[in-house]
Amino acid sequence: MKSLERSFYSKSSKYSFIVVLLLFFSIWIGTENFLHFDMALMGYLISSLIFAIGLTIRMSSWLLRPATRQVIQRSLKNLRQRKYKRRNMKAILKTAFENIFLQKFIFKRGIYRGVQHFLIAWGCIGSFAITFGLTFGWMHFELVDPETYTIVVMGVETISMAAHGLFAEMVYNGLNITASMVLIGVCMALTRRIINEDVKVTQRAEFDLFPLFLLLAVTVTGLLLTVSYVLLDGWMHHYMTLVHQVTVVVLLIYFPFGKLFHLPIRPLTTAVPMNYQEEWKVDTRPCLRCGTVYSSDPQVSDVKEILSVQQFDLQLEDGSYLSDYCPACRRRIRVMKQLNNQPHLQQGHNPILTRNGSEMSGFGSRRTDDYYNFPDHVQKELEQHKEEGGNER
Amino acid sequence: MSDFIAKEGIQNLHKPGEKLITTHCCYCGMQCGMHIRVNKSSGKVVGVEPRYDWPVTNGKMCPKGVTAYQTIDHQDRITKPLIKKNGEFVESSWKEALDLIEKNFKRLQEESGKDALSVFGGVSMTNEKCYLVGKYARVGLGTRYLDYNGRFCMSSAAGGFIQTFGVDRGSTLPWTELEHSDCFFLAGSNTAECHPTSIQWFWKAKDKGAKLIVADPRETPTARVADVHLDLKPGTDSALANGMLHLIIKEGYVDKEYVSKRCNNFEELKQNVDKFTPEYTSEITGVAVEKLIKAAHIYGMSPRSVVMFARGVEQQSKGVDNVRLYSSMALLRGQVGKFASGVATFTGQGNGQGGREHGQKSDLLPGYRKLTDPAAVEYISSIWGIDPSEMPKPGVSAYEMFGEIEKGNIRGMHVICSNPAVSAPNLEHIWNGFKKLDFLVVSDFFLSETASFADVVLPATTWAEDEGTTTNIEGRVIRIRKVTDPIGESKPDWEILSLIAERMGKGKHFLYNEAGEIFDEFRLATKGGKADYYGITWDRIDRENGVFWPCPAEDHPGTPTMFEESFYTEDGKANLGVVGWKEAGEVPTKDYPLFLTTGRVVFHYLSGNQTRRVDFLMEQCPEPFAEMHPALASRYQLEDGDMVKLKTPRSHMTVKTKITKAIRKDTVFVPYHWGKELAVNQLTSDCLDPISRMPEFKVCALQMEKLPAKKEGITRE
Amino acid sequence: MNKIMYLEFERCIGCRACQAACRECGDHDAKERNYVEYVDFTESRQTYPMLCMQCKDPACARVCPANAIQITDEGVVLSAMEEKCIGCRNCTFGCPFGIPKFDFEENKMYKCDMCYDRSKHDIAPMCASVCPSDAIRFIDFDEMQQLRRRRSQMNLVEGKKPQEGNKWEYVPEFFGVYTD
Ligand code: SF4
Ligand code: SF4
Ligand code: SF4
Predict the structure, then answer these.
(1) Hey, are the CB atoms on C165 and A300 less than 8 Å from each other?
(2) By the CB < 8 Å criterion, does B16 face chain A?
(3) Which residues of chain A from 311 to 330 reach within 8 Å of chain C, CB to CB?
């Protein structure tokens, strides 16, 4: 294993190598020894390989970040623990369904946004699945008899269907359907960006708009292909294939490096409840100071771990860490610390003195009498009354 | 004229597709400057932008100001006239509503004489509208019964100032000078909550070493940082002020030259305060002797000082006396009419200052002219184009109008820009009055508690749908701009008043096409009066960041600092206040052993009709509460959040307790911004000041009772 | 941008204008991102405002497994990118000041971004613009230094410069976007 490790520049190059190798292997199986390989898809194949390499590199550098590694490690550990199996599966499946499949949380941000994202997301995923399936030859159609097709996946025959049935139509038009979904979604997204100024506030325009335009280009050219094929008798078909191919190649190459990269990392979301919530969305760890539950033990220890790997020293004098306190108490600690007023850490308190000789009043502190330069007799009189004791609250 | 005014070098955020319109907040007397963001294509109001270059507030706003724009296009806006049919409001046309008003107004006047009608005005609207309310009542309806909600707000200050200085301008100095002062004596003002944007000036002064003395039964956010907090019993201000005067004289802090040259009654005053030794004062007020002495010396030693007060001292049966005595503190120190020193009251309502000058008060005509002065009547009659003999006589004060209703003298009422069903004292009496009326018309843009008693509700516009001017806390006349067209079928108040006047056959006196024409008319009406606006034009306001009245001519610079040379009294000298000690109208007894005092919270404005409809403000403060000291709470076994029944000789109510040590141990505080069963004004006392007719909102005797637990969780976040 | 957000807690009067104003900022979706809290209401009405320190090396970003928290060229630490955030809330526990807020419903983290659309043009953020007490200010670096010097006997350990990792121990003024 060591020697394998040493044959590469870095971990990511090693993984890229393995991924490419696996892809070739799968093509080999899928196309039954390259028998069914469609040479017209060569351009796609190459760009897909670049895509795979890019993705691998990005994924591995992402996984190397201390924060990510910590979460992945905990997830793996959790998954290995038999006694939590049921809980884990339940958590993963539930999050996967609500969060990834239904994308409920985006609908909460607004129905419009929900629909828009749902269309783009599932349109893209569908398109990718079909395109990759075809280019890598994982899947092809075979005619069984003049009336029946069968879909061959990885060299194994699966479903057969009537050549002109509804289902068949849907399968042939799969790409058209997914592409239309993306097209509608992208248009909605662009409209929102034109109408709503606020969307642009913190988004870098290129980062946000480029992928949208790219998707637009891919889907429009792709759909035009169909249009030309079906309605225009293949007019300009060849030329358009080329254009389409170019857009797809750009998209594939851009994918791992831009906004779209959020797609492959999204599944990590399923690990969150499993790792950090004993019970679904319930906090269990009490704050060290006020006792409000605000998090869970594993999460706080993860956070501490991640911070300490990165040389963040957030330990207080009494040995506790800032992450042991709920956010509200952390805010208070900061304020009190800066005002030298931390009853829970120090004995008593010691309100601030400023250098211009005056005390800042507030936080219960008062200016001392010498600030006022009272004449002596007044000072004496005041002392006397103080001894008698006023009705200070 | 541009709608957007900003000085060079000032940067504002202009979002694409939006324009900014420069105006002021609609709420309190600070009249904070702001720009309102309007979508260019739809004309809709979309937000607010700070007006950094407004000299009084520097772009700062309180949460009410920030959210004020949300009331403009609010879903609760009344957009059509409403007529009550079988106890239900039905939307109707303007014609239908006006027909009904004409019919009933005429019928009532025929049956019971001109004075059967009455007008209840308000001062949270522009000078133009306030002026027209007076003219509407006296010319349009011809009734003597006219008064306004300033009676529940500023009238004690007005009375006190007139007696002391001869004129009522809320502040003798501009706010921008406050930062240079050395000492502030704040009495009965919760400045931090009620006039938040003033705080910047106090804090700036404090940074330079200024001292702050605050007299308040509660340790308000302002009192919290005070050098001396005089935590007096509610209703003992006149004793406290006399005690301070005693010490100022005894310790030799009197500016003898100033007093002898510019003030009357010094000897009487000296004699009068003789017995107010610190010990005697302490006995009455409950303030420690040490604090009194310390406060007097700090105040006396400061070369420049400002005495300021607000509703806490004014809303008492001795409101006018309190104002006179506190003002005398500044006079003895020779502070009035000088740089960065003087006397000021914090104007409560947006146009509390302007509104009370323009003849909405039962006994006043525009320009602070007296209705009892024949020359004034003659002059105003000539402006209004009526015969002096047609001018109605003085009527009665706001609260007393409800007595007239009781007696059957007043049978119809038009309430404009006011919500007495929440803001008046002893509410059950008020509610009965409204029920007894034959005919009630209310102009408002939300269905207020008062409006729900009405027979006809007329949809008025908000402040952002009309042009005009207001006069802020300092006496500075400023410009309010139209931001958007009236929502729905609503109309600005001046248009509504003109329409009704026309129906009453007085149309020829109300031929206005726009607010500017009213402004010009009332400039003329104020000419030569004490509050002289004649030299002020809308143009000048824009150019000069507002103009201070009195400003008798267009080349007159206005008067930021009052009384530099002399006072407005007949002999030009200020009258020092000589007033003995008198108990409040209602004091704790065996059955009612505690003090109840009322006031505001920062999140709500007056009767809450507007602010209770703004989400942010309601989230911060959804309901009233009874604030009390833990020592008091434990005597009644109350914990934070417990329900408690408050009872006064008039009525009772149930609220949640809120416990803090920042209040006297014998006093319970309840904010008054809610209506119906949540209105603390059901409980308040209707004891009136003999001069200003101001009810005693700040003091009444209270009985408290813990209610069986219905406790909800205490949230501490 | 060489301006600083400067906080002076004891000036705060608890009016929460800063929170109302925060809702008005572009892209804030009518939710405030700052805090105003009582120190202890039973004892006193003292409140304090709290907002993001815009750390140069933000702990929140460091603990984010999805690498969703980005820093702009000007140095403003933005809310987690919605598309990347996996909703683990690590940032809310990592931040030494308790700043990031998390919306479970929408599965998104949001935090003070110094009103990015304003501050990137050197216009004061909304909270600093409206705060009636100047408890929150948006001022030049030099002015900040001056103010700090005036109050320097606070718990600043003389001669030692706060480091990113421990600046929370020092004066409130070390805060905001600034260049050395
Ligand atoms: S309510 Fe008063 S202090 Fe608040 S913004 Fe309006 S004018 Fe200013
Ligand atoms: S700077 Fe802007 S985003 Fe940050 S707390 Fe203030 S208003 Fe909110
Ligand atoms: S706006 Fe200023 S004074 Fe008001 S709560 Fe916020 S920080 Fe405090």
Answers:
(1) no
(2) yes
(3) 311-314, 322-323, 325-330
Name the residue of C136, C138, C175 to mutate for ligand 3: max ligand atoms within 8 A of Cβ.
C136
Between CA B149 and CA B401 the distance in angstroms is 12
Interface of A with C in 189-248 (CB under 8 A): 197-199, 201-202
**DSSP at B455:** S
pLDDT band at A64 (very low <50, low <70, confident <90, very high): confident
Has residue A115 been placed in a domain? yes
Distance CA A127, CA A218 (A): 11
Residues B366 and B463 in one domain: yes
| A154: alpha, beta or left? (left if phi > 0; alpha if psi -120 to 50) | left
d(CA B557, CA B550): 9
Residues B202 and B307 in one domain: yes
pLDDT 10s digits, B254-308: 999 999 999 999 999 999 999 999 999 999 999 999 999 999 999 999 999 999 9
Confidence of residue A240 (pLDDT cuts 50, 70, 90): confident
Q: By residue range, what is the domain housing residue B231?
A: 175-345
CA–CA separation, B118 and B128 (whole Å): 20
Query: Would the CB of C49 count as within 6 Å of ligand 3?
Result: yes
Domain contains A108: yes
Residues lining ligand 1, Cβ inside 6 A: B 25, 27-28, 30-32, 61-62, 64-65, 195-197
Q: Which of C26, C86, C169 sits opposite A272 (nearest CB)?
A: C86
> Is the domain of A169 the same as that of A287?
no
**Do residues B298 and B410 both lie within one domain?**
no
Domains held by chain A: number: 2
Q: Is the CB of C126 under 6 A from ligand 3?
A: no
Report chain C's terminal Cα–Cα distance, integer Å.
Answer: 12
Q: Does ligand 3 have an atom closer than 6 angstroms to the CB of C22? A: no
- Of A272, A301, A327, which one is at a domain's C-terminal end? A272
The per-residue pLDDT for range C151-177, each reduced to its tens digit, is 554 434 333 444 555 554 444 444 444
Give the span between the Cα atoms of A308 and A316, in whole angstroms.
14
Q: Could you read off the pLDDT of B68-115 as tens digits, one per residue?
A: 999 999 999 999 999 999 999 999 999 999 999 999 999 999 999 999
Residue nearest to atom 1 of ligand 2 (CA): C114
Domains and CATH numbers, chain C: 3-175 (3.30.70.20)
Q: How confident is the model over B208-244, as pLDDT tens digits?
A: 888 999 999 999 988 888 889 999 999 999 999 999 9
Of A221, A240, A272, which closes a domain?
Answer: A272
List, in sequence order, every residue forming a beta bridge with B33; answer none if it has no partner: B24
Nearest-CA residue for ligand 1 atom 8 is B32
- Residues in B closer than 8 angstroms to C19, CB to CB, are 63, 616
Task: Determine if ligand 3 sits within 6 Å of the CB of residue C69.
Answer: no
Distance CA A200, CA A179 (A): 26
Q: Are B434 and B414 spatial neighbours (Cβ–Cβ below 8 Å)?
A: no
Residue A44 has pLDDT above 80, yes or no: no
- Domain check: are A74 and A135 in the same one? yes
What pLDDT score was predicted for residue A166? 67
User: Which residue range forms the structural domain that includes residue A334?
Assistant: 283-338
Contacts of A290 in chain B (CB under 8 A): 716
Using alpha carbons, select from B539, B147, B599, B160 the residue that is nearest to residue B348: B599
Of B66, B204, B660, the CB nearest to C17: B66
**What's the domain count of chain B?**
4
Residue A348 placed within a domain: no
Give a yes or no: residue A363 inside a domain. Answer: no
* Judgement on whether residues B381 and B503 belong to the same structural domain of the protein: yes
- Do residue C46 and residue A364 have CB atoms under 8 angstroms apart? yes
User: According to DSSP H, which parts of B113-196 are helical?
Assistant: 127-135, 155-165, 191-194
Same-domain status, A332 and A197: no
Mind listing the pLDDT tens digit for each residue in B565-609?
Answer: 999 999 999 999 999 999 999 999 999 999 999 999 999 999 999
Q: Which residues of chain A approach chain B closer than 8 Å at the C-beta?
A: 197, 290, 328, 358, 361-362, 366-367, 369, 372-374, 378, 381-382, 385-386, 388, 390-393
Tens of pLDDT, residues A334-367: 777 766 655 544 444 444 444 333 444 444 456 6
